[in-house]
Design brief:
4-stranded antiparallel beta sheet, alpha+beta, globular, 5-stranded mixed beta sheet, 16% strand, single chain
Length: 547
């Protein structure tokens, strides 16, 4: 009898072979089922409560995936692809998870029948390449010359993105706002230059787009009420300096032996502070913003001289003010001049709902803007912010990659038809696998129908017939429980959304198929218990050599 060789430490779980692949596919299907119903204009929302009791209501795929505490190692890849889609494109996060899940589901019978995963992966890679080439060929180029047409096209892309969100009733109002906001940015379209501020109260339609910078009134000291609330053509000093008395003694250790010397130290502190304040005033600045606190002495000083100040301004707001009004953020008061000070046409402080806001209008370099969101419940406003974020990302993508396709399952059905026809021209196992991938593409249209309560089989049959007769852009018509030419119905999305989703879903599928063994190491705590709890944490599970 051969001696048993213990290779892995006790408590290690390992599963391998065909069963492992199938179990991974099942885990991913379970995740997809959790997110499946959120797709499309008739999608439902999920309410997720975290361990601290914070409730989030959302139907943004990436948000839900992040909030679900997924333990299964294979299913985590789906969370990752949703995040990658969110980071790269901003929308289509639900679609990418559903596609990946369906690809895996279509592979399952082949795995069960004993087809080698490598064969499936090879065919999938080939089919993905074909699908991407086809999308690139079908995409309709945007004409940027005609300003009006270009703008309406971007608005349609934004409206399509919002049609599946909570704010779909107001999508016309918001799509114009989103396009305006993105158009204000410079050619790099930096996302952090669009500030979104949430103020509870009021209706959604009270949301405003400020062509410039607006931020909540910061912490303020006595003397603040005496400051003026509106300025015409102010000069704006942006500082990273603490204008308070206590600042100096923290920078040095002072040893004293009599009261006069202490008085000198106190006077010196006052003089240093007043010196700074005088320099700020002499520079001609009338609005002073600082990242660090501005104390009560300084607040009173500015109020007496008809100047406005705000301390503890968040960094991103200060950066946006600098971008819009020019100037630069100074960490010393010694070279405040017209080059380092910003300007704008009007500065005012106004009430918005229950908050007071500082507004900067008519900024000379206005490459930034702020959306002030209004609404009732906090969760609702957070979801509105996520929806706007998706729409802003979509408009940015459409401006950078100027080609669009029809949404609503149209492009997916066309790819499905194309791959199905292609699969019939080749022999061997590839034919079946590319055929299966073609079938998987139908899941988007089917899910749109299911979520809206339509008869999916009936509508898919109509769509297959239309696509077979070269009706390229026919997809699901949610409003009339039928099919329609979605390109004419203006349901558009940037080509990159789809191609990125297909690449990510296909990569995740290939990755999971190529895994045939999972080894789960026991936690270090178990190792210590087996060793009788050796002191100093020298348990077996630590992976350190035994002394």
């Amino acid at each position: 009898m051969q001696p048993q060789i213990l290779l892995l430490k006790e408590g290690t779980e390992n599963t391998q072979g065909k069963q492992q692949v199938i179990s991974n596919i099942n885990a991913c299907s379970a995740i997809v089922d959790a997110i499946r119903t959120t797709l499309g204009p008739r999608g439902m929302d999920k309410l997720i409560v975290d361990n601290r009791g914070k409730a989030t209501i959302s139907n943004d795929g990436a948000t839900i995936m992040k909030l679900l505490d997924v333990v299964h190692p294979a299913a985590k890849t789906l969370v990752e692809i949703a995040k990658s889609q969110d980071a790269e494109v901003g929308d289509g996060t639900t679609s990418v998870v559903i596609l990946a899940g369906e690809f895996l589901k279509q592979c399952k019978p082949f795995v069960e029948e004993g087809v080698h995963p490598r064969v499936i992966i090879k065919s999938f890679r080939k089919a993905t390449k074909l699908a991407l080439d086809k999308i690139a060929e079908l995409g309709v180029k945007i004409n940027k010359e005609d300003e009006k047409e270009y703008r309406s096209l971007l608005e349609k892309c934004a409206a399509t993105s919002m049609s599946s969100k909570l704010i779909h009733q107001q999508k016309d109002f918001f799509s114009k706002m989103v396009v305006d906001a993105v158009m204000m940015l410079d050619e790099l379209l930096p996302l952090n230059m669009i500030g979104i501020k949430k103020v509870q109260g009021g209706a959604l339609e009270d949301t405003v787009l400020v062509p410039g910078v607006a931020f909540k009134k910061t912490f303020s000291y006595a003397g603040f009420e005496m400051q003026k609330k509106t300025y015409k053509n102010p000069k704006i000093a942006m500082l990273n300096i603490e204008l308070e008395l206590k600042a100096e003694k923290e920078n040095a250790e002072v040893r004293l032996d009599n009261v006069e010397e202490y008085q000198k130290v106190v006077d010196a502190e006052w003089n240093i502070l007043y010196d700074k304040l005088d320099r700020i005033q002499k520079s001609g600045a009338t609005v002073v913003l600082s990242k660090l606190p501005i104390g009560d002495v300084a607040t009173q000083y500015f109020a007496d001289r008809g100047m406005f100040c705000a301390g503890r301004v968040p960094d991103e707001d200060l950066q946006r003010t600098m971008k819009a009004c020019g100037g630069s953020i100074q960490s010393t008061v010694h070279d405040l001049n017209d080059e380092t000070l910003g300007t704008c046409e009007t500065f005012e402080e106004k009430q918005v709902g229950g908050e007071r806001f500082n507004f900067f209008y008519g900024c000379p370099k206005s490459q930034t803007c702020t959306i002030i969101l209004r609404g009732g419940a906090e969760q609702f406003m957070e979801e509105t912010e996520r929806s706007l974020h998706d729409a802003i990302m979509i408009v940015r993508r459409a401006m950078k990659n100027d080609s669009v396709v029809a949404g609503g399952g149209a492009i997916d059905m066309e790819l499905s038809k194309y791959l199905r026809n292609y699969s019939r021209t080749i022999a061997g196992k590839e034919q079946l696998i590319i055929g299966a991938m073609a079938k998987a593409f139908e899941v988007i249209a089917r899910q749109l129908c299911d979520n809206a309560g339509f008869d999916a089989t009936n509508i898919l049959n109509k769509l297959r017939q239309k696509h077979a007769q070269d009706g390229i852009w026919w997809g699901v018509d949610i409003n009339n429980e039928n099919i329609a030419d979605n390109f004419e119905a203006c349901v558009w999305e940037p080509t990159i959304v789809k191609s990125n989703a297909i690449v990510a879903a296909s990569e995740a599928t290939c990755l999971l198929l190529s895994v045939d063994e999972t080894v789960k190491n026991p936690r270090s705590g178990q190792g210590e218990q087996q060793m009788g709890g050796m002191p100093g944490g020298m348990g077996r599970g630590r992976g350190r050599p035994m002394m």
